[in-house]
Amino acid sequence: MIWKLSMTGIKSRLRDYMILFSGLAVASAIFYMFQSIATNKAFLESSNTVKMAAVIFQFGTVLLGIITVVYILYANSFLMTLRQKTYAMLMMLGAKTKKIAQIIFLETFIIGIAATFIGTLVGIGLTSLVNSLLVNQLDITVQHFSPFNVSAMIWTFVFFGILFIVTAFINAGSIVKKPILQLLKEQTMPKTLKIRPILLFLETVIGIISLGIGYYMLAHINKYQLFGIAIALVTIVLGSYLLFHAIAIFVLSILKSIDAISMKKLNNFTLSQLTFRIRDYTQILTMVAILFAMAMGAITVGLGFRSQTLDSTNKAATYDLVLNNAQKIDKTQINQLNPTVNDSYSQKEDDKTLYYNEEQFNERPLQNKDYQTQKVISYTGQDMLNDPNILENLRWYGTPEQQAKDIKLVSAEDFNQLDLPEASLELVSVSNFKESLLQIKKLVEENTANNPSLATGDGFNQTAQKYVMYQISNSLYSGFQFMGFFLGLAFLTMLASCLMFKILSSANTDKARFQMLRKIGTRPSLLKGAVRKEIGVLFLLPGILGVIHVLFGLQMFKELMSDPYHGIWIPFSIFIFLYAIYYVLTVVIYSSIVLPKENN
To answer: What is the model's pTM?
Structure first.
């Protein structure tokens, strides 16, 4: 009987449960994908630098888990608000609170597990897609990769299973503790709204100051670091709450007092509706604004990192190719690159010292790029002899065993008299590194084969090699790119679902007001317009504040990205389009509840 009642309850509110279901399915799908890629043995063993991307996906899993907890708690509280009248009716018919608790527990758990199962199936497909994109972008080969990851599946079901069990107990406890009369009348109980101008003014001032402090911390995150992030989180959340709490009511009051606005069509009704419940919406609007900023920020930064790989590599590297023991390389391969710089330096070495011919540096000065100014400085042999610190720049291009030796520049005569084997160090620059990437890759692989010591140390002993630096940066930024995009997608689904639940939770109460307007002769087109305006304001307010948060928040990435605002219109357009879809969906569902069928 309990099972039957639970399934009947789900069917009766299937439309509302589907909103929760979709958010949970997206969250579990992305959670599985992050875990699958981060723990997939075949993927991790494909390349040493890939492990950096895997760490980023683990970090994304933690962030997603935290936001999912908040989402489920909010969404379920709204869902219980919609269902509490039904539970109260069952109690009036003699159902015991223990049985009601069991029904609530089953409804919550069934929806949660079903969403996790569907989400995991979707996650398997996402994993396969993202893996293919990553493999292509990182230019790696992955053998025997399988998107089906038992470990990731277990983690997904364990995390969401525990979360749903806890939520089910919370839902059951919140319902059975309330008196039947409160359950029946809570949604229709009048809420008084006292407007105190002085208090609203103080809240507005404090809110603006709080946001100012938060934005300042984000803009100077390099100076304040973790302390700045902590302060920004507190002040931006506080500022957002106070602005919604104060300014929204203040602005609505002003609009109602202007007859040219309030007396036009059903504007007075819409403004009254918003004013009546804006205080009740303060928390959800604040949360949606923060999630909106996080979602849009994640997508913006994720897509922004796409262009950072080559940019950061170009800034850090002076030469495009470093060849140790270059005498073993076929010169034809180098000439095919059409190098703009091709400087070769003779080397001789014993157990403790690495010798160079000074005159070669006088003829072909060693170049070094300053990371801050990006200015290339040329050093002659005499410059290096006069300043030992400059001589150390040469050590950067040696093999691991050479870097441990003393470096000496000697005259051509003294160099020729050294009875030691002679080798060659060749430093090459090309006109376009990206276009020459495949040829450079082949030469780097050959160089590593000719110098086995370069193959050790996870590749990090080749950081003078621009191609290796490119691989490391590409792995890092590609991980951020995919994590940011999918986190943004998950955050968008959650914030829109929460706002939809909040709006729909009051639909049954609002239904009587719209029916009253219909009975006194209000045209259906005006009623539909009032719905669009009211819901539009509730979507627009957190959207505007969220955009402002993003525009200031991107300042914290200026140390990681050359221009965090570059191409910002692309992620903004994608996000606003998806956000608009949720707005339209909410309008359709809300209208079907509050407006009579004959008006649809």
So the answer is: 0.71
